[in-house]
Amino acid sequence: MPNIGGVLKQATVDVGAAVKDVGKEVIGNDEVGKAIEQGAQSTTQNPQIDPAIQQQKRLEEQKKRNEALWVIDRYKKIDQAQMQVRQASKQEEMQKKQVEEQQKQKVQQYKVVEQQKRQQVMAVQQAQTRTEVKKGGG
After folding, report:
1. Which own/partner pairs from 57-65 qualify as long-range (CB within 8 Å, at least 24 positions apart)?
2. For position 31, what pLDDT does the model report?
3. What's residue 43's pLDDT?
4. Backbone dihedral angles phi then psi of residue 40, each to the nearest 5 degrees
5. Which residues contact 121 (CB under 8 A, 6 or more apart)?
6. What burial class does residue 82 get, using C-beta atoms within 10 Å of its C-beta: 0-12 exposed, 13-18 middle, 19+ buried?
7. What pLDDT does residue 87 have?
8. pLDDT at 49
9. What are 23-55's pLDDT values in tens digits?
10. Close Cβ partners of 27 (under 8 Å, ≥ 6 residues apart)
11. What is the DSSP string of the chain?
12. Is 28 left (phi over 0), alpha (psi -120 to 50) or beta?
């Protein structure tokens, strides 16, 4: 779809230039020529655009603005969703590390308890061997 405003502006400029040229050639520098030249200048400097075209442009610009706002909103929602996923993943990883750390502590405690049991068993065995080794009375 061609840009209607641009086409109208170009047509106005072309007509204005033609009117200037014709006015200079036909009339010269008299009052009518000056009036024609002023009319041509005012037309080329500030062209009047049809209100319907202005309304259509405003609607198109509003539509583009709404689409841009929708895209921005969509990207914000995607960003928030990604952030939530990252946070959930971090939390899950932290919980996993806590569970692993607890397991390590339990294993360490079990090893300590087992070591203590072995030491007790060895102490009992040593005590039994000492008591059994008695010198005979004779």
Report:
1. 57/5
2. 72
3. 59
4. -65, -40
5. none
6. exposed
7. 97
8. 75
9. 555 545 567 667 777 776 665 555 567 888 889
10. 33, 36
11. ---HHHHHHHHHHHHHHHHHHHHHHHT-SSHHHHHHHHHHHHHHHSPPPPHHHHHHHHHHHHHHHHHHHHHHHHHHHHHHHHHHHHHHHHHHHHHHHHHHHHHHHHHHHHHHHHHHHHHHHHHHHHHHHHHH--PPP-
12. left
Domain boundaries, the chain: 1-49
Q: What is the mean pLDDT of each run of 10 residues along the chain (138 residues)?
A: 66 69 56 71 64 92 97 97 97 97 96 93 82 58
Q: Which residue matches tokens 């008591």?
A: 131
Structure tokens at 86: 């990252």
Tokens 């259509």 map to which residue? 56
Residue type, 48: Q
